[in-house]
Amino acid sequence: MDYADYLKLDPLLSALAPLSEAPDEPMFIVAHQVSELWMRLLLKELADARNGLARDDLGFASRAFARSGRILEQMVRMWDVLSTMTPADYVAFRDSLGTSSGFQSLQYRLLEFELGARNPAMIEAHRERPESVVQLEAALTRPSLYRAAIALLARRGFAIPPNVLGGALDTHHEASPEVEAAWAIVYGDPRTYWDLYELAEKLVDIEHRVQLWRFAHLKTVERIIGLKRGTGGTTGVAYLESVLKRGFFPELLAVRTAL
Questions:
Q1: Nearest-CA neighbor of 81 among 235, 209, 207, 224?
Q2: Which terminal residue of the chain, N or C, has fewer Cβ atoms less than 10 Å from its own Cβ?
Q3: What is the 3-state secondary structure (H, E, C) of the chain?
């Protein structure tokens, strides 16, 4: 085995196959391919973090959170490269995309599900790929990362209601006063609850970085296509703005106001 064999470079590099002669299409393809590779690793790290929380191994989870943050930094920087493309550059090859859209990214949807933004209706965009549907439906049967964190709070003796712990896994987490109260105790006495305090801050950091990535996406799209509809039929900037308003860990933001 040599370097190219180990990294599967032949299939990897041959995946760059522009459909037009436009000079910016290769950059557009590579940026999105690399983003998908980073997402693959990010999903693995967040699953490790969730599994670490489930077995009360916060040290293992902390390492996975730290790496996840660095991965998200790289994903944000990807938009810096794409933002070098002008509207005319994009128009030169946009027709080559057909009806393809980032909205159809399986891994992005898995990322949302992992973080707790769960809406089974979003699976419909993937119906043409049965294997994707299987993965998404399976993801909705597992606790989200935040659900694992809340379960940890309950095991540590905090008063978490049964309806929060045992609620449907395929729905978006709704803010709970009891969960906010538990985090308020943690934030009010970091010395006593240091590992939980660190966990809370790592969760906030992950949400912050995901939102930066979403914002960079929005501003890059706005810069290149303005308010035109996106490929695949999405509303483009309007859809990205609506997504940006939806967070993942509501109690961790609300508790800052209450302190």
A1: 224
A2: N
A3: CCHHHHCCHHHHHHCCCCCCCCCCHHHHHHHHHHHHHHHHHHHHHHHHHHHHHHCCCHHHHHHHHHHHHHHHHHHHHHHHHHCCCCHHHHHCCHHHHCCCCHHHCHHHHHHHHHHCCCCHHHHHHHCCCHHHHHHHHHHCCCCCHHHHHHHHHHHCCCCCCHHHHCCCCCCCCCCCHHHHHHHHHHHHCCCCCHHHHHHHHHHHHHHHHHHHHHHHHHHHHHHHHCCCCCHHHCCCHHHHHHHHCCCCCHHHHHHHHHC
The token pair at 42 is 């990010």
- Please tell me the distance from the alpha carbon of residue 13 to that of residue 26, in angstroms, as a whole number: 12
Terminal CA-to-CA distance of the chain, rounded, Å? 58
Cα–Cα distance for residue pair 238/222, rounded to 1 Å: 10
List the pLDDT tens digit at each of the 259 positions of the chain. Answer: 999 999 999 999 999 999 999 999 999 999 999 999 999 999 999 999 999 999 999 999 999 999 999 999 999 999 999 999 999 999 999 999 988 888 889 999 999 999 999 999 999 989 999 999 999 999 999 999 999 999 999 999 999 999 999 889 999 888 999 999 999 999 999 999 999 999 999 999 999 999 999 999 999 999 998 877 766 667 678 888 888 888 899 999 999 998 8
**Whether the Cβ atoms of residue 17 and residue 96 lie closer than 8 Å to each other:** no
| Residue 64: count of CB within 10 angstroms of its CB | 22
